[in-house]
Amino acid sequence: MYRNLDMTALRSFVTVADTGGVTRAAGKLHVTQSAVSMQLKRLENLLDTDLIERSGRGISLTAQGEQLLGYGRRMLALNDEAWGRLTHDAYEGDINLGVPPDIIYPHIPEVLHHFATDFPRVNVKLTCEPSLALKENLAHGQADIILTTETKTDANTELLQRTPLRWYGAVGGEVWKKRPVQLAYQPSCIFRSEAIATLDQHDITWDIPINSNDYQNIMAFVSADLAITAVLEGTHNPNWEIIPADAGLPPLPNYGIHMYIAEGGQDMLVQELARFIRLIMAKTAH
């Protein structure tokens, strides 16, 4: 008599083993913790053996679980390879995604990774430009989906999250004490005019000692403690930290991260990429 392993349950088991817990596995699989737990129980019932030992300190695999893990990884790899190669041509093509460089992290790498796993034959072309330039690309049919940072919501956009704009400087830095305030921005950055206007309103003098359209140069300048900048909370470079509240810098407004989908963008692949963006952005929504 032939017996078949449940591939969904097997994927839950392997993901729990790889991530070290049900909670992290549920996040990676985009399902609830209870769903992962049910899949594990189903697999254990099917094999009539315990696969995981649960304790207050976490989980560990039983001897049977260790054996199944090796088989499970190979089976899932073959399953995913076959699925990717034999998927219908409808799952092929190009999608043009536009994102401002200062909100690439932490969300977009995770979005692209999960989308590529589910749709390996789809090529996502990523364009990194300021919000205004991305909106022009969308208007000229050069983008399928764009994300923007704006204070106001247009009728034809979807607000993904609203996040405070914060002052950042180098970790352990002191340039924020200097007057005039030393700022680092690309000329086209939407946060540049906001920062300048806020400082002007509070009669705080400022200077911009760097002139570059490359965001990498801006990050390096701030990381070197030569200037400060303001970006959305949580999207900062790991070499930066929030400037103390008692530094004398005025508070900044909240900005929305918005998603625009091109007119006629009802293509299944475009909608699936938009779905991944919503799911992953929702994890850190304020």
Automatic annotation (TrEMBL):
<dbReference type="GO" id="GO:0003700">
    <property type="term" value="F:DNA-binding transcription factor activity"/>
</dbReference>
<keyword id="KW-0238">DNA-binding</keyword>
<comment type="similarity">
    <text>Belongs to the LysR transcriptional regulatory family.</text>
</comment>
<keyword id="KW-0456">Lyase</keyword>
<dbReference type="Pfam" id="PF00126">
    <property type="entry name" value="HTH_1"/>
</dbReference>
<dbReference type="InterPro" id="IPR000847">
    <property type="entry name" value="LysR_HTH_N"/>
</dbReference>
<dbReference type="InterPro" id="IPR050176">
    <property type="entry name" value="LTTR"/>
</dbReference>
<keyword id="KW-0805">Transcription regulation</keyword>
<feature type="domain" description="HTH lysR-type">
    <location>
        <begin position="5"/>
        <end position="62"/>
    </location>
</feature>
<dbReference type="GO" id="GO:0004089">
    <property type="term" value="F:carbonate dehydratase activity"/>
</dbReference>
<dbReference type="InterPro" id="IPR036390">
    <property type="entry name" value="WH_DNA-bd_sf"/>
</dbReference>
<protein>
    <submittedName>
        <fullName>Transcriptional regulator, LysR family, putative</fullName>
        <ecNumber>4.2.1.1</ecNumber>
    </submittedName>
</protein>
<keyword id="KW-0804">Transcription</keyword>
<dbReference type="Pfam" id="PF03466">
    <property type="entry name" value="LysR_substrate"/>
</dbReference>
<dbReference type="InterPro" id="IPR005119">
    <property type="entry name" value="LysR_subst-bd"/>
</dbReference>
<dbReference type="GO" id="GO:0003677">
    <property type="term" value="F:DNA binding"/>
</dbReference>
<dbReference type="InterPro" id="IPR036388">
    <property type="entry name" value="WH-like_DNA-bd_sf"/>
</dbReference>
